[in-house]
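Good morning C.,

I know you're traveling, so I'll keep this short. The sequence:
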Amino acid sequence: MSPGSTYTEDFSATPESVPKARAGVAGFALAAGAGGERLDAIRLAASEAITNAVLHAYRGRGGSFQVSASCLPDELCLLVTDDGQGMQPGGEPGGLGLGLAVIAQMADEFQIVRRSSGGTQLQMRFRLRVAEPTVTPEDREPEPVRLS
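The tokens, ready to paste straight into the viewer:
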């Protein structure tokens, strides 16, 4: 897949849409070059963001959400967008409230944007290649001392 490739799909805000949307994002991420722990991080963050849209955006009213992903050189950008009311303080009981913290930990960058047209957009960025650690001279094993 080349940089500039995109994936966009609309889903109804129902529990049945969560695995479908997650699978779409994971398939795109895999084709973009994500693998191993990076793919797992993208899949988990996407699942949490999608679940938030389903559970909190419409509060029992019908609605939809959109998932968009873009492949950039060595990174993937993911947007989960709804037209709903968003999460409110003291909102619905029953959840642990850890989803946004999980997303923030999995993504390299994460932002919550309230849309001027209504609704919420969760913006995530993931590096696809983790930089190799830099080895400095201080990190190297010392040369053995030769006794003559």
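Safe travels,
E.
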